[in-house]
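Q: I'm building a small set of examples for a reading group on sequence design. Run inverse folding on the following structure and report the sequence directly after it, with nothing in between.
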């Protein structure tokens, strides 16, 4: 049985020590375990509970709600939220085995089979993202290495680029306009590329600015392109600093339209959203905004 300090828990779960202490004091979430010298410590079951709570909180469930649930109820909620269609389970395992072997030929053969059978969008929804969810858990447990993550990311990035290039058609003049980008220090480009694919596929006039984009560059793009919506993600970025000032400034830049934000930090941090901002909890939800133009230029 492993014994962890609060700093160990922070490193393994991604939840800041300060946040864990708040959960303990305000919601009495964890058992108060202390050594004879009054040093706080945690066990495997505490780590599992924090990982589960952090995952569900990322899905949009409030900590106050989770605090009323038993560990068993939280585990069931996790099972429900991570449920994978049984017909895809073995396929995901096959892809993961290919990843562990770093066998690109086998991985691509399986991936291309899924794309032919069910289409690229459904493959991303039902196979790739559930696989990435599994990998994130295995990464925390130390079961996968950085080389495996790079292997997966590079293949999926190439596939996304190919599928996006296939959508080489001019958008309708009256199509909803989206500007999408990643802020500085944000690394989750795969999610942004998938959003770009969805928007182009369903007819949006989309400007993809890319990664490491500063707010002054966003403002220049807004002035020229005049988007109905701005979409961006916050997972790695702002993990060490408050997100609120950035969101407020972005809302000012996009004062004629709306901003859509997603990612772990949008639910981890307590935000007061500007009137023209909202959180998107699922990337597929982006499609509902295609028929809701809000142009005010």
């Amino acid at each position: 049985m492993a014994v962890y300090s609060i700093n160990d828990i922070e490193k393994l779960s991604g939840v800041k020590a300060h946040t864990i202490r708040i959960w303990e004091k305000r919601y009495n979430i964890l058992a108060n375990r202390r050594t004879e010298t009054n040093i706080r410590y945690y066990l495997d079951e505490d780590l599992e509970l924090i990982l589960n709570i952090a995952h569900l909180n990322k899905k949009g469930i409030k900590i106050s709600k989770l605090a009323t649930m038993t560990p068993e109820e939280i585990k069931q909620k996790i099972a429900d939220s991570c449920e994978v269609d049984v017909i895809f389970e073995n396929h995901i395992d096959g892809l993961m085995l290919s990843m562990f072997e770093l066998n690109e030929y086998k991985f691509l053969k399986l991936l291309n089979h899924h794309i032919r059978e069910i289409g690229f969008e459904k493959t991303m929804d039902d196979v790739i993202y559930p696989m990435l969810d599994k990998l994130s858990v295995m990464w925390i447990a130390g079961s996968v290495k950085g080389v495996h993550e790079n292997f997966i990311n590079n293949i999926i990035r190439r596939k996304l680029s190919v599928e996006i290039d296939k959508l080489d058609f001019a958008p309708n003049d009256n199509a909803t306009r989206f500007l999408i980008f990643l802020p500085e220090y944000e690394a989750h480009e795969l999610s942004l590329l998938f959003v770009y694919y969805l928007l182009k596929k369903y007819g949006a006039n989309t400007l993809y600015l890319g990664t490491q984009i500063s707010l002054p560059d966003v403002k220049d793009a807004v002035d020229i392109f005049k988007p109905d919506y701005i979409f961006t993600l916050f997972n790695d970025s702002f993990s060490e600093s408050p997100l609120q000032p950035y969101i407020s400034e972005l809302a000012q830049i996009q004062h004629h339209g709306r901003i859509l934000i997603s990612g772990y930090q949008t639910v981890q941090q307590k935000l007061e959203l500007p009137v023209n901002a909202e959180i998107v909890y699922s990337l597929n939800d982006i499609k509902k905004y295609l028929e809701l133009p809000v142009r005010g230029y």
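Strands lie at 3-4, 42-43, 177-183, 205-213, 229-233, 258-262, 277-279.
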